[in-house]
Amino acid sequence: MPLVVVIPYLLIEALAFYGVSKLIGTGWALVALIAFFFGGLMLAAVEMRSIARKLQAGREKPGAAAGDLGLVATGAFGVALPGFVTTIAGLLLIIAPTRVLVRQLLARQLRRRLEEFGGRAFETVSMRASGGAPVSYGTFVINEDGSPADGSAPSDEDISQWSRTITPEDFGTDTGSNDK
């Protein structure tokens, strides 16, 4: 593990343990760490079984269940790491209300990144296939910089008409011969 991660982790956890020790005493801080460790791992096991039961009963979508199981496993890992900060972060991933929020946030970010990647990949492939010439998106032709070839943006009616008449052949490698 790189020192860039290990040193801040050790520093933060040492400061957290020092703070808790000052608050409740060193012995009780150690007892709390041990209790959080075993309690957190048991809670993770209970949550994983609950997710599996919901999935078997059809009350949860497979994608959501996979995300929840991954987050619970990550939370269990956080609980297993020594220290109060990682334990609290792990417990937040294990309990259902915060896990749902984290899953939704991660799903939104993943969806956005995939959309951006898909758009960049399509533009790259289209530009290479056309040899740098304007790229045709059905009846709409755009220049290399993304501006409309005729200087105007397509209207909503043009887009609606294009979407009604689209065919799989419109996405062939011959960009420009399928303009309608």
From TrEMBL:
Region feature Disordered, mapped onto this chain = 144-180
GO CC annotation, single: membrane
Cite the Pfam families for this sequence: FxsA
Q: Does the keyword Ribonucleoprotein apply?
A: no
The alphabetical list of record keywords is: Membrane, Transmembrane, Transmembrane helix
Q: Which InterPro entries match?
A: FxsA
Segments spanning the bilayer are: 26-48, 69-96
Q: What is this protein called?
A: Uncharacterized protein
Per the UniProt record, the source organism is Corynebacterium argentoratense DSM 44202
